[in-house]
Specification:
heterodimer, A: mainly alpha, Non-ribosomal Peptide Synthetase Peptidyl Carrier Protein, Chain A, 4 helices, about 0% strand, B: alpha/beta, Peroxisomal Thiolase, Chain A, domain 1, 2 domains, ten-stranded mixed beta sheet
């Protein structure tokens, strides 16, 4: 069952908040994980695994490096849910 | 700032989170009031695994009430406790301005990140390798508390992690003497931490019959020197001191609690866990501390004993104290504070160092509890019932710590 992009963004913001302490409002579509949100590669792996569980998708390791912005992640998850 | 091989070292900051309180002040107050930390455990696993020991001395103020959610998630409890204690110690020292290259950290832990390791094993078996938390390895390392404190304070002069079981915290403080006198740093944040109230640790210690099984009355279970003692009570927490050269402390106008005069270290080379029964190694450590500190035994008025409340260990230490002090043993007020705190394992030596420092500062030796019928084999001047006032003038007090693997550490503190 596919979720809307807004729902995925909100869910992703919850995961990022849990992992890094960043406020949910800071997690916006145009933000980059590394530069803007200061998320390191170890945290990113945890976020990916938690997102897989939350959204019922598989995000292959080789795909993770392509997820530069929050929008990249939301779009990938949205596409994978279809 | 230059240092020499005989530079005086002083204590200028104290921090702790313990079964008696979330700070040094609250811990010391509860200690003097005689309020013990041991309580029946309420975790689900206690009943689930039918553990033979169902109580421990857990933190009075849980880390979850102090730290941010992210800190709790990204640090093993042993590092969480070290962070709490080091923040207090650093603030107590006046949040000093210091070049990062002149500040070192030494935080010992006996067991390290056992909770993290076993959680990862559970996750691997139940959910697969992708669910193993990516920070598992850095969190389970015994030096993760040292790393966390170094990052917190920006300490770049070295991060050291002595691992000597229940002497770890004391050895960390001893190691700071070397670091400071070698001139590698002007300040060292040193101490110990432990977070091992976990079913595996309780099961392991219980299997070797090291723990008291007084499940029906936890508050009276830790009873060093009493004929009814039947093992130690597991505690947890962290204790951190800020140490610096006297010259450095005076130059920045720091409040000085006491002088860290010297340390003695030895090994029993006898048994993996049992102390050498005559206390030969322990007395060697005490004598070394006295010798290195150029301490006249008649100046020693107080000793915080290791005294874990095990039948064998308390007697071996008693013999060691007699061997080291001879006729002067009668003039030493001996405090067995594990009767109140439980045994904080790798943090114990550092917490008892703080008690020793506070005893010098306030001229008060804390009283032990639960001494109802003294073991006739124990011939020491034990402070019990009421805290005892220590004499005015220049005094010296010792802190003994011993650990599995035969490790013995004695620290000597003096009034300034």
């Amino acid at each position: 069952m596919a979720q809307s992009q807004e729902e995925i963004l909100a869910g992703l913001a919850d995961i990022i908040n849990e992992e890094t302490g960043l406020e949910q409002e800071a997690v916006q579509l145009d933000k980059t994980f590394t530069e803007d949100l200061d998320i390191d590669s170890l945290s990113m792996m945890t976020i990916v695994v938690n997102a897989e569980e939350k959204f019922g998708v598989r995000i292959p390791d080789e795909q993770v490096k392509n997820l530069q912005t929050v929008r990249d992640a939301v779009d990938f998850i949205h596409g994978a849910q279809d | 700032m230059s240092t020499t091989s005989d530079a005086r070292i002083v204590v200028t900051g104290l921090g702790a989170t313990t079964p008696l309180g979330g700070t040094v002040e609250s811990t010391w107050d509860a200690l003097l009031r005689g309020t013990p930390g041991a309580k029946t455990l309420t975790q689900e696993w206690v009943g689930q695994y039918e553990l033979p020991v169902r109580f421990a001395a857990s933190l009075a103020t849980p880390a979850s009430e102090v730290l941010k959610k992210v800190e709790l998630r990204r640090q093993d409890p042993c590092a969480q406790y070290a962070l709490i204690a080091s923040r207090e110690a650093w603030a107590d020292a006046g949040t000093p301005e210091i070049e990062p290259d002149r500040l070192a950290v030494a935080v010992g832990s006996g067991i390290g990140g056992v909770t993290t390791l076993i959680q990862a094993w559970d996750d691997l078996r139940e959910k697969g390798p992708r669910r193993v938390f990516p920070l598992t390895v850095p969190m389970l390392l015994a030096n993760s508390p040292t790393g966390a404190v170094a990052i917190e304070l920006g300490a770049r002069a070295g991060g050291h992690t002595p691992v000597s079981a229940c002497a770890s915290g004391a050895e960390a403080i001893a190691s700071a003497i070397t670091t400071l006198r070698s001139g590698r740093a002007d300040m060292v944040v040193a101490g110990g931490t432990e977070a091992a109230i976990h079913p595996v640790c309780i099961g392991g210690f219980a299997a070797m019959q090291a723990l008291s099984t007084r499940n029906d009355d936890p508050a009276t279970a830790s009873r060093p020197y009493d004929v009814g003692r039947d093992g130690f009570v597991m505690g947890e927490g962290a204790a951190i001191v800020v140490l610096e050269t006297y010259e450095h402390a005076v130059a920045r106008g720091a409040k000085i609690y006491a002088e860290l005069r010297s340390a003695g270290l030895s090994n029993d080379a006898y048994h993996a866990a049992a102390p050498e029964p005559e206390g030969i190694g322990a007395s060697a450590a005490i004598r070394e501390a006295l010798q290195r500190g150029d301490i006249d035994v008649s100046d020693v008025v107080h000793l915080n004993a290791h005294a874990t409340s095990t039948p064998v260990g308390d007697i071996a230490e008693c013999k060691a104290i007699h061997a080291a002090f001879g006729d002067r043993v009668d003039g030493i007020a001996v405090s067995a504070t594990k009767s109140l705190t439980g045994h904080l394992l790798g943090a114990a030596g550092a917490l008892e160092a703080i008690f020793t420092i506070k005893a010098i500062e306030t001229r008060t030796a804390p009283a032990q509890i639960n001494l109802e019928e003294k073991d006739p084999a124990i011939d020491l001047d034990i402070v019990h019932g009421q805290p005892r006032t220590l004499p005015d003038g220049d005094i010296v007090a010792l802190d003994n710590s011993f650990g599995f693997g035969g490790c013995n550490v004695a620290l000597a503190f003096a009034s300034v």
